[in-house]
Design brief:
This protein is of the alpha/beta class. It has one domain: Metal-dependent hydrolases (TIM Barrel, Alpha-Beta Barrel), CATH 3.20.20.140. It is built from ten helices and eight strands. It is globular and about 50 Å long. The site of zinc ion (ZN) has 6 residues, from loops.
Length: 255
């Protein structure tokens, strides 16, 4: 089997044990996006320390397994601190000196007013710094979440060519493609499988494959290498596989 360079375009690999990172490296994951998220952040400073940990300790740890991490910083809708506007200053610090390459993971989850305000403000930062943004979509009310996200992004004037609508699946792929945004394809049980991708390859081939791996969710750190191997066995053209597991992410993230 030919070996592909793999870019896992959305992970929380900082939560994975060394044994999982070693397997990812061995399976061909050479680069990944390391997206900020903590389960609880009551204070803005919690996220500041988290961003710093991703850019130092966790980046170094991944490097030991031959994996280059590209850090995305942002306020995830599940951990918006009361004084979240303070976090915008921290995000700017990391974007302005290049320690972070983009904004993420951000998005809507429960559709509150605070979520929308935080997303708008972070879209503004992405536009201002000309960086890609990785947007979460929730497991429920998915079409509504994508519609609202696209509307907010349009209002701010975000570059849709660098706007990744993640966790896109069969129910939202049409909307995302029509909008000109980039589909993030998280291979996860109950959301999207490699079989689903192959069944509608024309729809999905502009997407960025990822594992969204985290130790607190039902995810698989080897989701992308396994999807690549499956697609190859099923006879998908090598150039298409290469785009989905490597080139599309490198282009959208401009690395
Ligand atoms: Zn995620």
């Amino acid at each position: 089997m030919p070996r592909f360079e793999i870019f896992d375009s959305h992970t929380h690999a900082n939560t994975m044990p060394n044994s999982a990172l070693e397997l990812m490296g061995v399976a061909g994951v050479e680069e990944l996006a390391l997206c900020s998220f903590v389960p609880v952040a009551r204070n803005a400073e919690t996220l500041s320390d988290h961003f710093e940990e991703l850019c130092t300790f966790q980046r170094d740890r991944l490097d030991k397994f031959g994996i280059e991490a590209h850090v995305f910083v942002g306020i995830h809708p599940l951990c918006i601190p009361a004084n979240w506007r303070r976090v915008l200053e921290f995000i700017e610090d990391y974007l302005s000196d290049g320690r972070a390459v983009g904004v993420g993971e951000v998005g809507l989850h429960n559709f509150g007013e605070k979520e929308e305000e935080a997303l708008l403000a972070q879209f503004e930062l992405a536009r201002e710094y000309g960086v890609p943004v990785i947007v979460h979509t929730p497991p429920f009310e998915r079409v509504k979440a994508v519609e609202k996200t696209l509307k907010l992004a349009e209002k701010v004037g975000v570059d849709f060519g660098r706007l990744v609508i993640d966790h896109t699946a069969a129910d939202t792929i049409g909307m995302v493609n029509d909008s000109g945004a980039v589909p993030g394809l998280s291979i996860k049980p109950g959301l999207l499988s490699a079989e689903d991708v192959i069944a509608n390859l024309d729809d999905f081939e502009a997407g960025l494959l990822n594992s969204d791996c985290a130790n607190v969710t039902n995810t698989d750190p080897l989701a992308v290498p396994k999807a690549v191997s499956f697609m190859l066995r099923e006879g998908v053209e090598k150039s298409i596989i290469e785009k989905m597991c490597w080139k599309n992410a490198r282009d959208v993230y401009r690395l």
